[in-house]
């Protein structure tokens, strides 16, 4: 359960990086922050999927 919450927190953190308003604070970094957020969401979503599949296969 702890891994699940950690991965879920990573996904939420990635979404927060995507939606963070940077218009007043270094607007030139907005594409970089968006790219990092997208990569974080993808990595943690894949980790969640792999953990879920491994959990299902171990209970079968």
UniProtKB/TrEMBL annotation:
Keywords: Membrane, Transmembrane, Transmembrane helix. The chain crosses the membrane at residues 7-29, 35-57. This is DUF1232 domain-containing protein. It comes from Paenibacillus harenae. The lineage of its organism: Bacteria, Bacillati, Bacillota, Bacilli, Bacillales.
């Amino acid at each position: 359960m702890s891994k699940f919450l950690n991965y879920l927190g990573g996904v939420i953190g990635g979404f927060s990086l995507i939606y963070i308003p940077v218009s007043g604070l270094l607007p030139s970094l907005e594409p970089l922050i968006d790219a990092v957020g997208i990569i974080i969401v993808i990595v943690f979503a894949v980790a969640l999927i792999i953990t879920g599949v491994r959990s299902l296969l171990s209970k079968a």
